Amino acid sequence: QVQLVESGGELVQDGDSLRLSCAASGRTFSGYTMGWFRQAPGKEREFVAAQVWSSADTYYAYYANSVKGRFTISRDNGKNTVYLQMNSLKPEDTAVYYCAAILGYSLTYYRAGAYRYWGQGTQVTVSS
Q1: Torsion sign, CA atoms 113, 51, 68, 85
Q2: DSSP label at 18?
Q3: Do residues 89 and 14 lie in contact, with contact meaning Cβ atoms separated by under 8 Å?
Q4: 3-state DSSP call for residue 82?
Q5: Hey, CA dihedral for 105, 107, 109, 111, is it positive or negative?
Q6: Region class of 109: left (phi > 0), else alpha (psi between -120 and 50), else beta
Q7: Contact criterion met (CB below 8 Å) for 73 and 51
């Protein structure tokens, strides 16, 4: 069982930066594919970014086109934490952001259904 707790969401201005954190329980964090998703009011949950586990704890980062070049996903295995650095934020980035995890490699890292564990979400609001 893995528990995920997100933090860092807040109200910011258009163009600001923000870093979200997701702290995970468990001793095998390094072996997990980690993803970030978001859900805006009235919309479906959508993929934002993922760090996909590969052999020998190598990770590959993937991003949604809407955030590519602005967001960066990273992790600190020593702290069991994954981060989402968000730069040049836009009002359309406003959503509840969720952290998700699945053990091992995931070919369908961009699908919410691929993940077994989810955090409770953290609200990000970008005002214009």
Answers
A1: positive
A2: E
A3: yes
A4: strand
A5: negative
A6: alpha
A7: yes
From 91, 88, 82, 103, select the one nearest 127 (Cα to Cα): 91
**Residue with the larger pLDDT of the pair 26 and 76:** 76
Q: Are 24 and 36 in contact (CB under 8 A)?
A: no
Name residue 21's amino acid.
Answer: S
The predicted-structure confidence for 22-59, as pLDDT tens digits, reads as follows 999 977 899 999 999 999 999 999 999 999 999 877 99
- pLDDT for the residue numbered 56: 79
Residue pair 77/30 in contact by the 8 Å Cβ criterion: yes
Residue the block writes with tokens 């586990």: 53
Q: Which two tokens stand for residue 26?
A: 């468990």
Structure tokens at 68: 């590519």
Rg of the chain taking only CA atoms, in angstroms? 14
